[in-house]
Amino acid sequence: MTGLKRTLGPVTVTFYGLGTIVGAGIYVLLGSVASYTGELLAYAFLIAGAIAVFTALSYAELSARLPQCAGATVYIDAAWQRRYLSICVGWMLVFTGVVSASAIANGFVGYMNEFLAVGRVPAISGLILFLGAIAILNMQASAILIFVVTVLEVAGLVWVTYTASIAEPMAMATIAEPQMADSSLIFGVLLGSFVAFYAFIGFEDMVNIVEEVKNPKRTMPLAIILAVVIATVLYFAVATAALRVLPASELSVSDAPLSAIMQASGGGGELISLISLVAVINGALVQIIMASRVLYGMASKEMALSLFLRVSKRTHTPIPATLIVIGLILVFALMLPITRLAQLTSLVMLVIFVLVNLALLRLKSDSSVVYQGVQFPKAIPLLGALTAFSLLLFQLIPLLF
Questions:
Q1: Which domain holds residue 291?
Q2: Interhelix angle for 139-166 vs 120-137, to 10°?
Q3: DSSP 8-state assignment for residue 213
């Protein structure tokens, strides 16, 4: 049977991950984080990056230990050999990919209407079918598109940072104006860092293309670490520059924070809005690829229909798996309440992160498992599990009380 083709090198994989992280991060969450942190916005992103890096390092080691599609499913199966748990996690991953792409598709409509008035149904349907066709065409073509868009996204962030850095700063009185009581500063930064954490979770998508990566045992860990580090530096730079020209109180109420920063810096916001639109498209494509590769990986482990294991001899992509994902995204995007599903997706991802960190901890503690390759201290998955579980509790408490 035809398998997936290894065509992706370290630079392409790094930008694949960086595009996923940045596209779902700073372009969307900057204003939301500012509403909690006030003028300490940049530090919230630093803390979030520090929290995310533990789980990212666990994924980096696991992707080298077990370089197979359906990442989390494979890791948990290797750690506990509980088929029901592995299948459950696999479908949870597919669910998060489908719902994320559905939410992104709905967000696309708002960005599109800033440039061209298009009905919701044709806009969403056209976007998903177009991206599905690209995902089916071949992985190298998809990766090249993601690479180009990611370069555009990063260039946009650098441009915003540079423009704000050389612009006339706000009056010192405005800058010094407190955004919250002194007693709540630390709590506000922590709350903001919890929100900002979701701007880093794209590294999960990276491990699901591992069977299409050249020399995965070296390439995947390096690409994951680079993607998270670069994203953290970019986030800190943008947040710091933003507060030179715009108070956090105004940033927090803006529907297009990067555009607001550009306007406050004396420039126009149209181009950065266009880049934001492209970033949204990039995010949806990555989710389609991720969900289809999880189905493929599950089928290879006999955890899903063997139909999903079929790979085209011409395109070297899992066409049946991609088609079912496209169909599910269309249904979710057009018919279901995406806001609530997106909130549920965040909870599901945190559950998976806890399990993945615990899986690595178990594998590292098992003396019968022989592995020579990229390894991190046991403290890394332990801290990853604790931080992910803390975030999970933080999300659940408001729902329970």
A1: 10-400
A2: 120
A3: B
